Amino acid sequence: MQLLKALWALAGAALCCFLVLVIHAQFLKEGQLAAGTCEIVTLDRDSSQPRRTIARQTARCACRKGQIAGTTRARPACVDARIIRTKQWCDMLPCLEGEGCDLLINRSGWTCTQPGGRIKTTTVS
């Protein structure tokens, strides 16, 4: 008798989990982002000036509480809101692996320096 009750409880729990997954899938329809993720919406590059490329991108993020849209490893990401408030940009690890990060003097952005000496500057607007 105990075994039968345990099997019914297990079957009920499995059905409950299945229904939760189905309902969750309905809420995450096409065009919606999962919590804590970002996607690039637009990316524009301007190479009209010699030896200089200006790139502008717009990202859409669905960040969790206490997070805000930022950049990690040169990709849009949700980062701790404290980093943005204090303008400690290098704390969000915005540069690629092997690059060095330095704050701009006025804290309006950061630079990523590659081992070969090439410098990428990012400003926040």
TrEMBL record:
GO terms for molecular function: G protein-coupled receptor binding; receptor ligand activity. Pfam families: TAFA. InterPro entries: Chemokine-like_TAFA, TAFA-5. GO terms for biological process: G protein-coupled receptor signaling pathway; negative regulation of vascular associated smooth muscle cell proliferation; negative regulation of vascular wound healing. Residues 1-25 form the signal peptide. Keywords: Signal. The keyword Membrane does not apply. The keyword Kinase does not apply. GO terms for cellular component: cytoplasm; extracellular space. Belongs to the TAFA family. This is TAFA chemokine like family member 5. The gene is TAFA5.
